[in-house]
Specification:
Layout (H helix, E strand, L loop, with lengths): L1 E12 L2 E10 L2 E3 L7 E4 L4 E4 L1 E6 L17 H15 L3 H17 L2 E8 L6 H18 L2 E8 L4 H14 L6 E7 L7 H14 L2 E6 L2 H11 L3 H7 L7 E5 L5 H10 L2 E4 L1 H7 L6 H6 L4 E3 L12 H11 L9 H15 L16 E4 L12 H7 L8 E4 L2 E5 L2 E2 L4 H12 L2
Parallel strand pairs: 1-4, 1-5, 6-7, 7-8, 8-9, 9-10, 10-11, 11-12, 12-13
Antiparallel strand pairs: 1-2, 2-3, 5-14, 14-15, 15-16, 16-17
Helix pairs in contact: 2-3, 2-14, 3-4, 4-5, 11-12
This protein binds zinc ion.
């Protein structure tokens, strides 16, 4: 039970803002306080819903700024990353320490839900299960919501489907932990993989996720099939309301209309696609067509940071070059309710009564916010690299006064350094 008192502004959802007190009872936003609630004084602060990172590759947290991965085409980047994974030796321990670091970074930056699209797997299914369990247990220890995506990247289709089924049978899902499936894209995975993972999703009631229309995806689809990626996904049954498409750079007006009609959702990842030169999704056009667009960082191999608010700022800054400017509140909505829509989670990404008690408290009293007329717009426009003072997940304070409460940050760093030597 938690009552936050004295907020200067509370962003309830994209269209609603209030002020004053906010109550969380039994992990949910409540209209009335619990009599025995802990009080958190947030005088002069701004409260927003917890941010939802709709597209991360947590394993890559252990492989940031690797030589040979900056400023190169994706056809060079992919094998460079693959050989780094092979050198490090992929196992449950590596995915656990990488996930712990990535998730701790995320929550310290205000992210309360992370979708981890895990793409790198050994061939034997028991070791795959170790990786899934290591990642999901790291999230449980840290108190962060996780959507673990059993992805594929050139995996054997049958083996991937067996592993995905095994993970879905063993990992207990809850409102804190959700599973999904997701081939890396038509550039890497065969129609058989999409079909078999789609069957696993249908059997276990999982969401489906994939990546589409980064430059290499378009080029390989044309070369291999003589088609565009979205034509293939449509034919393979992967343009549907339960599917989220990450990246979506270089889509035509006709493709935007087809995505909208299909009910599929999208994830923008400018912090990956811009610096790597892989394209820029026409986000405003997607939103204006009625597509729910979320925001993701993608992984540390291309982004190097898992700071979703920084990428929200970047999304806003680059938007005028690919359509029209986006307002701060639109981009904040992408990073919250837009991402949640793609996860099928109507309880996340807003603070209406009954919503999950996931929120960030932003202190806007420092010099970086001095002179700011609109403190909500200022969250994105002012103070690049801003972190929240407090972060609450399901009513539990997991970051207090900028300090992680659920684990020791130095230990997480030391564990990762010991395992990968960086
Ligand atoms: Zn990605």
């Amino acid at each position: 039970m938690l009552t936050l008192t004295g907020a200067r502004a509370i962003v309830v959802d994209e269209g609603t803002q209030t002020t004053g007190d906010l109550h969380v009872v039994d992990g949910l936003v409540s209209a009335t306080p619990a009599p025995d609630a802990d009080r958190l004084d947030v005088d002069g602060c701004v409260i927003t819903p917890g941010l939802v990172n709709a597209h991360h590759h947590l394993l890559q947290t252990a492989f940031r700024t690797l030589p040979g991965t900056r400023g190169v085409p994706m056809t060079t980047w992919l094998p460079t990353m693959a050989s780094a994974y092979a050198d490090a030796g992929l196992d449950g321990e590596l995915s656990t320490v990488a996930a712990a670091a990535g998730l701790a970074e995320a929550v310290l930056d205000g992210v309360t839900t992370v979708a981890d699209h895990h793409l790198t797997w050994p061939s034997d299914s028991d070791r795959c299960l170790e990786i899934a369990l290591g990642t999901t247990q790291a999230a449980q220890r840290l108190g962060v919501r996780l959507v673990f995506v059993r992805g594929t990247a050139r995996d054997d289709p049958e083996a991937a489907a067996i592993s995905a089924s095994q993970i879905a049978a063993v990992v207990a899902q809850s409102d804190m932990l959700q599973l999904a499936v997701g081939p890396a894209g038509v550039h890497s995975d065969a129609p058989e993989t999409f079909r078999l993972l789609g069957e696993v999703a249908a059997r276990f009631g999982l969401r489906r996720r994939t990546q589409a229309n980064e430059q290499v995806d378009v080029a390989i689809a044309l070369e291999r099939y003589g088609r565009r990626p979205l034509d293939l996904l449509e034919e393979w049954g992967w343009l549907a309301p339960d599917v989220t498409l990450a990246h979506l750079c270089g889509v035509t007006d006709d493709e935007i209309a087809r995505v909208a009609t299909s009910g599929a959702t999208a994830t923008h990842a400018p912090g990956c696609d811009l610096p790597m030169g892989w394209g820029i999704a026409p986000v405003a056009a997607l939103r204006d067509a009625g597509v729910a667009v979320g925001l993701g960082t993608s992984g540390g191999g291309s982004n190097d940071a898992g700071h979703l608010l920084a990428d929200a700022r970047l999304a806003m800054q680059v938007a005028p070059l690919v359509g029209r400017p986006l307002a701060a509140r639109e981009v904040l909505a992408m990073a919250t309710s837009g991402s949640a829509a793609g996860l099928g989670r109507s309880d996340l990404g807003h603070l209406r009564t009954g919503a999950a008690g996931d929120l960030c408290v932003w202190d806007v009293s420092g010099v970086a916010d001095a002179g700011v007329a609109d403190p909500v717009a200022g969250l994105l426009w002012a103070s690049p690299g801003r972190r929240p003072r407090h972060v609450v997940v399901a009513g539990r304070v997991v970051v207090r006064d900028y300090v992680l409460q659920t684990a020791d940050e130095a230990t997480i760093v030391a564990d990762l350094r010991r395992r990968v030597g960086r």
